[in-house]
Design goal:
single chain, mainly alpha, 2 domains, 0% strand
C-alpha cells in the first residue's frame, strides 16, 4: 500500500480523529524523550528549554508533515509551503504585527478586567496564579546575556513556535475545518482552539484575535509562509527586547498601550484595522 496520500479521500470526521491520534502520539513520545534526556530536572532553565524544544517538535512540528503526507500526494502543497511568498504581502503582515503590539496589550488588559462572580473566586485565583507562574517562567527563559543564548531563544521562542503552530493550526486544523465550513467559520474556530490550547485565560482575547488574523493571512494569500513570518516577527520582538533591555530599565514593551498609555493602544488598534483594509484592497 502506498502511504503517501493514502487517506486523501478521508472525510472531515476521520481526519479529526487522525489528527488527534497523531498529535497525542508524538506529544507523548517526545515528552517522554524530554523527561529521559533532562532526567526530569525542569527546575534548571536549560533543561526546561530542552524539554520545550522536544515537546514543540512532537506536538506542533512533526504531526502536520505526517498528516499532510497521509492526506495528499503533494504534502508541501497541501501545507501551502511549496511556493515563495510575495515580498509585499510579507512586509504588510510584519508591519501589521508590529503596529499591533500596543493594541494587543490593551486588549489583554481589558481581558484581565473581565469580572468573575464571587462563587468562582477560587477559579479566578487559580487562573491568576497560573498566569503569574507562566509569566515568571517566560521572563526566566527570555533573560539571557550572551549571543548564544539569544540565538537559542530566537530558535526556541520565535522560529519553532511560528513554524510549528502555523502548520498545526492554520495548515492542518483550519484547512480540515474549511472542507465543511465557510472560511470565516474555519478561521475563527481555529483561532479559538489556538488561544485555548495556550491555557492563559487573561490573554485569551488578544491571542484569539491574533490567531484569526494569521488565519485570514493564509486564506487571503494562500501561502503559509506569510502567517509564519508574521508569527515569527511577533515572537522575535519579545526575544530581542529582553536581550537588549538595559539593566535596571523600567521600560517594558508589554506595558505599551496599557493603563496611562491606553491612547497608544487605541491608536494602534485603529492603525491595524486601517492596514488590514489596505492589505485587502491591494489584493482585490
Amino acid at each position: 500500500m502506498r502511504i503517501k496520500g493514502a487517506f486523501s479521500h478521508a472525510k472531515t470526521g476521520s481526519r479529526i480523529i487522525q489528527l488527534t491520534v497523531v498529535a497525542l502520539f508524538f506529544m507523548l513520545i517526545f515528552s517522554l524523550l524530554s523527561i529521559w534526556i533532562t532526567k526530569g530536572n525542569f527546575s534548571d532553565i536549560k533543561a526546561l528549554k530542552l524539554a520545550q524544544f522536544f515537546q514543540s517538535l512532537g506536538l506542533f512540528v512533526i504531526p502536520p508533515f505526517i498528516l499532510a503526507y497521509l492526506w495528499s500526494k503533494q504534502p508541501l502543497a497541501y501545507l501551502r509551503i511549496n511556493r515563495n511568498p510575495s515580498g509585499e504581502y510579507v512586509l504588510f503582515a510584519v508591519i501589521i504585527m508590529l503596529v499591533a503590539i500596543p493594541a494587543i496589550n490593551l486588549l489583554g488588559e481589558l481581558n484581565h478586567a473581565i469580572p468573575f462572580p464571587d462563587s468562582l473566586s477560587w477559579l479566578e485565583n487559580y487562573l491568576i496564579d497560573m498566569e503569574k507562574r507562566a509569566e515568571d517562567l517566560t521572563i526566566r527563559m527570555l533573560n539571557v546575556d550572551s549571543v548564544g543564548g539569544l540565538l537559542v531563544n530566537i530558535g526556541l521562542i520565535a522560529i519553532i513556535p511560528a513554524v510549528g503552530e502555523e502548520l498545526f493550526f492554520r495548515g492542518i486544523i483550519q484547512q480540515v475545518l474549511q472542507t465543511n465550513l465557510k472560511s470565516h467559520a474555519a478561521v475563527w474556530i481555529t483561532a479559538i482552539i489556538f488561544s485555548t490550547i495556550h491555557f492563559q485565560f487573561y490573554g485569551f482575547i488578544p491571542r484569539m484575535l491574533m490567531g484569526a488574523f494569521l488565519g485570514y493571512l493564509l486564506v487571503w494569500t494562500k501561502n503559509m509562509w506569510v502567517p509564519i513570518i508574521a508569527h515569527f516577527a511577533n515572537n522575535a520582538v519579545a526575544v530581542l527586547f529582553y536581550y537588549f533591555k538595559g539593566e535596571g530599565s523600567t521600560f517594558d514593551i508589554d506595558n505599551i498601550g496599557k493603563s496611562d498609555t491606553y491612547l497608544i493602544g487605541i491608536v494602534s488598534l485603529i492603525a491595524v484595522l486601517l492596514l488590514i483594509y489596505l492589505f485587502r484592497k491591494r489584493q482585490i
